[in-house]
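B., you asked whether I could sanity-check this one before it goes into the benchmark set. Here's the sequence:
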Amino acid sequence: MVVESTTNPDLNNLASNSQKKSETHCMVPITVQLKDIFGPNEIGEITICDTTGFWDTMDPEVDVANATAVIEAFQKCKSVKILALSSYPSLGDKGRSIQKLAHMLISMLPGIEDRLDAIFYVFTKYPATTNIPNLLKNIKTLQVDKDSSLRWDTAFIKILSDMMEKTMNGAYKLDPIHGDPKILIRELQRLRGISNPGEIFRYPMREETQRTEYLEKDRDNALEYIEKLIIQMEILRTMPEVESKTAGTYFRTVEKIRGYVQELQKTAELFLISIDNQTGTISFMYFARSLSRLKNAQWINRIDPGMYDTLMQRITEDLMRYVQQLEDRLIKLDLTLKHHDNISIAQEILVKIESMTVLECTIPQLET
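And here's what the prediction gave me:
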């Protein structure tokens, strides 16, 4: 299928996928000029934010970053309206994604029962033959009416009832290719916006992220705890009658540590990729803290010779390569008055290089 290129530059940062997989890893704001939709006599604009799928982000670090971005965005908004999107490929057995969508709305918006007039439900990638009102009715009949815990979930019941009521005369099925955008925009305009959203909304993190945040408090000492465990296991393994019985557990533990070390390296690589696409002041503090923790991990060489050294060498090489790329990019910039726009680019590069000074304590090579 061939799709015409768009004239809206905001859409260049938007990714789409026909399958179940989510392509959105961070919030993408798209400003729509109403005159482009309804004609020159229509004034004003509306900003639609494409957010992550909340529970389908890559990892807890991305989840936390998105939480911060969403909250900061809400704080800058006068009002917010909710476009609740349900995708057919992720519908699941017995419409569980509909239930998941409802509970996500509950978790992000306290007192949602009083703000239902700010929500518009949209269904995408559903077959033309799918009767969405019947689908919602079946969820109530097969799930809610037979599950006492759901029957007591008054917020969920109200959202499901609201969804059923608003789709009674037909649900809005989004067709990005052949659909008429006027219908969607008009529906969004009719909604009553939620004022002061920065004070009301919460970001619904995944359970995995919540556990990670809870454990983060003890993470600074995690490697020291693991070292003590390994020492105790090594002492036990000096006893011949115990060595054979603990071999499996010991080597599985070593393999887990190896996987953790590889994860640290991958995290460093992903971090450098992500900051390369950011502008303005970049904070390396979290990354510096992670590297500082690694200072307590040299004992890993004892159980797997060279593992720690290889990790630090690769991270150092990645950082040095990144700095070199920044410097090369800076040198190649034409900073004459003819290309004055390059001055702001040069400033951004210098800010990134300066921000990396917090890493010099762990990676002395960066001082050069």
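One thing to flag: The longest helix spans residues 240-276. Otherwise nothing jumped out at me.
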